[in-house]
Amino acid sequence: MQTNPSTPDTELQADNLRRAAIDKSVKGPVLFLFTNGAFWLMLSTILGVLSAIKLVEPGFLDGCPYITYGRLQPAHINALVYGWGLQAALGVMLWIMARRSGQELKTGKSLMITAGVFWNITITIGILAILMGKSTSIEWLEMPKFVWPVLLVCFLCFAWPIARMFGRAFRPEGFMVSTWYILGACFWFTWIFITANVTLHCLPNLGALGAGIDAWYIHGVILLFFVPVGVGSAYYFIPKITGQPIASAQLASAGFWTLAVLGGWTGMQKYMGGPLPAWMSAVGACAGVLLLIPVGLVGLNHHLTTIGKHNAVAASPTLRFVFFGALFYPISGLVLALNSAFWTGASLQFTQSWYSFQMVSVYGFFSMSVFGAIYYIVPRLSGCEWLSVRLIRNHFWFSVYGVGTIVIMSLVAGLQQGADLNDPGHWDQSFMNHVINSRPYVVSRAVAWALISFSNFMFLFHLLLMVAGLGRRSTAPTLLHREHDEHALPAHA
Amino acid sequence: MSAPANPDSTDLDRLHAAVKREKEDLAPESQPAPLWAIFLLMLVAIVAGGQIGQMTGGWSFDVSNPFSVAGTGGDPRPGGGAAGDALDPFALAMKKGASGYSVCGGCHQGNGAGIPGQFPPLAGSEWVNGGTERLIRVVQHGLTGPITVKGAGFNTPGGMMPFGAAMSSQDLANVLTFVRNSWGNEGTMVTKEMVQKVRDEEKRATQWTAADLEPFAEKNVPGDIPAGPGATAAAAPAPAAK
Hints:
heterodimer; A: 493 residues; mainly alpha; Cytochrome C Oxidase, Chain A; 0% strand; B: 242 residues; two-stranded antiparallel sheet
């Protein structure tokens, strides 16, 4: 929608200025979150390489207690989830909600920056504590107890203004399609986070149920926080860049409400056949399979929206990342269903396929979507264009191949481990033999994390240049595949 | 987070270029969903329903086994708690002994006939059907040297290895009860207490010889036998060993 200076369209000019003002109002907090998130992502991927190496070669860097596998792996996951995931998600949520609601961020900016600083300091202390052996041993909640109230307060400092923006907004038809996911994420994370921490840290003698609550928490954070943010940004950016309206408002609505209803019921199936009341696992397994419905509805809607318009994916960096993120969403649903159903879960339980599910949702789906959002948002906030097509292209391909390798290899490793452990013919094999058999898969995991580390190094470097205002000075967006018929392409990105 | 002092930071057209080239927000359409997708989702719902059908343990907080069915006591494994509770002590010992016998069957064969000239038979053997004291001692500590069974001489190199250290008293008693009541053999049940009594009395580390055991040939280890078919002799037809 280029403006023509010879025939000034005052209404459009006013709208442009309004959007520019909104961007300017959220610039500080959003860039702060993205930059710090990218640093944590860098650290997390390096820890991922190290912990995969330690799983293959336990003697690697022997004698240093800080980098044993039992400390590296939780540090890697916590840096990924709380350092990168939550910060990047909050940045995207804040920007999309401000834009969709047409509200400038008037007050609370300095409170947000303060909360962001506290968030990062707290996580730094928490992850150092894990590396020094003070882990709580509760998966995804390994950081010491005192960390959680601080994180909750910091999260609310962002979530509350976002919810207020929604409340004040004028809501035209179709307003909800992406914003209700963002609003939902604000409330759901708060609910899940408080519930899990209060039960796990304050109630004594939980026994086996504590493990079940922890599995519920992990599934909840993925399905009711990371997934809504990813889906919400896909629903925002796909029509925005392709210029195609979302195919079906009804499918969007059904996809949202089925996710909202089902997301909180799953998790305990991780301990199917374990010392929990059987109905808890059964309900979790049922919900885990039923979640294919919201996944399928969203996937179908994206398919109907983008069918026949895939050429824009080649050109726009944002669309490319968001599109591939959206492709990973159905895959994450399938991996969840495979892990959840009793039929396949009996083999996949307690194997590497659990890691496959975490990575396909947190990295393959959520992070790829958020990368796309960042490629769209940052030029509007920093006032310059992305510097290098090559850096973006490398970031994309190394990420796609890296996370694809991790997801597929972990799933196949899980199938093999599970089948071997359940095979009566293997009764005379020691557990160590099974561990050694899965080594090739872990080697590929280490290589994949190294590829991703490399891609994130380029991403971080590029982002820092942009934040410092050293990007390209141009009115044209940075597009991949510029050599293609430039005049036929719409001006997107 | 203040903007750097770029020389061209006053170029408003360029600074707002990204905003100006944006497309407007579009309201979603209402395209129909294809029918095959709806069928696929129904299929998903059916598979999901299968996860709660029988797997819920009757929605009870006390049942943690997803495969539990009312009336079996919650343990579906063959020979597991539920199946065992339903059997009398003799039938249970026969059932468990039949599976324990797979260790013995390697030499004595599944039909208890042994191999002529190599391994003595158990079916109709006076060593099996005679006193329980001698039988328990043979299996507990092993036996070596020449031996005569059913009129035929055997002298297997190495003899029979001791099984006492590798099996619990209960497992040993089950196997002996099975051996004494299969292939036409009929004898009293051997109980866990009897095996334990012999174990407590005799701590030898070497195998027996046939001559050593002669004094025990007709002695039965005293002990209570649960009332039922095993108290005197087998009444039930013996199941075939695997």
